[in-house]
Known about the structure:
The structure holds two protein chains of two kinds. In chain A, 27% of the residues lie in helices and 24% in strands. Chain A is α+β, with helices and mostly antiparallel strands. Chain B is mostly helical.
Amino acid sequence: xxxxxxxxxxxxxxxxxxxxxxxxxxxxxxKHHPDINKAADAATRMxxxxxxxxxxxxxxxxxxYDAVGQGAQGGQPFHPPPGWxxxxxxxxxxxxxxxxxxxxxxxxxxxxxxxxxxxxxxxxHGPGAAHARRGQDHHxxxxxxxxxxxxxxxxxxxxxxxxxxAKGNVALHERTLQVAIPKGIxxxxxxxxxxxxxxxxxxxxxxxxYLEVELAPHPTWRVDGRDLYFTLRVAPWEAALGASVNVPxxxxxxxxxxxxxxxxxxxxxxxxRGIPGSTPGDLYVMLELVLPPASNDKARDxxxxxxxxxxxxxxxxxxxxx
Amino acid sequence: xxxxxxxxxxxxxxxxxxxxxxFAAACGTExxxxxxxxxxxxxxxxxxxxxxxxxGEELARVRRIRRLxxxxxxxxxxxxxxxxxxxxxxxxxxxxxxxGIGVP
Lengths: 322, 104
């Protein structure tokens, strides 16, 4: 386990005042909050900030952390000395919001035991005397390809959670879970896996695991809810005269009619060709006209001929001849 | 860890939506808090009749509300404003995305 330099995480000095710590946390939280910042590591960063803040805002925890961390550098291997916390008593309030927050193995090793006792109601009981309590629910994100929403799939997800062994040592526990991704899944939905959360205490049941599904961006189709969007490039004569063209869908190619007189930006709907379900989504095809290059005499002649014969003014609607 | 069994979960759609007690537990919060959020219009049950039921998107929303409350020490009124702005940004992003203009 690595030593975590909480002062460095918040970018403050070791002798900073409570007020400076609070200000630093607030500033960084505004910047890195995963609900605001779309960066992939925003959630991890915020978790570190929360953990550092949780320790440094609390006089007891900060004193204990300072005592343990004498001379330690962030990132160095770290093992808390046996019985290190016998001199400290943590009030260990289970958190204002009653919610268990994810912590690093480092945090769990230092403060986990006190917190577990507190949440089990009664610091006076030993671990054996704890009454049954349901294990913690876990929440994680899983990114799956769009094709899974069409065909269903089984995906492996690796989960990391700090767990304490019988001797009270905390280690980062890694486990891989094979998860069935049901056909028809959409981005933002949650898969609930009963009993895949933390083990319960005493005779308590295991918690559940909630996986928030995110569909990976696809090079061909864009996804919005159940609907897919696809940009189809067409030649001017196809748009002008109408044509039958092939459109790729995740379920294979389908034939579609481009109506005569279409313009760039026209949106055509292929009903029910989106993500499957009891009410399947639609596939929207957006037309994009592509002009053949006037790169040789023959092409230039055709354009000149059109200019002469068609009497077409694309700016007629603008009124004045600008 | 090879050959681990396949975990089959339940997707929290309309079909498997949770009633308020199970939902509050899944969010790690109190039933009363969920009622307040619905009353204030911050969360809308996916099914309203005959009884409220909530799906996965509501679960993510309540968790977001609690994160915002906790991390910014924000009251519900401020969280409501943040949610409106976040919704608006997501709506605009989706629109850009649909028209094929990538948003980083």
